[in-house]
Amino acid sequence: MDKNILLSEQIKKRTQFLRSKNDNEDISQLSGYLMQICYGKEAVLTNFLDPGARVDLRELAQSDFYIQEFGGYDKAEKCRVIISNDWEYKDVENFQFSLIKITYNHKFASITHSQILGTLLGSGLSPASLGDIITDGKGNWQFFISDIMLDFVCREITRIGKVAVRLDRIPLKQILNIEDDVQNVKLVVNSLRIDAILAALTRTSRNIINNQIEKENIKLNWHKINNSNIIVTVNDVLSVRHFGRIEISNITTTRKGKYRLEANLWLSKKKRMY
Question: What would the CATH number be for the domain defined by 183-267?
Answer without folding.
Answer: 3.10.290.10
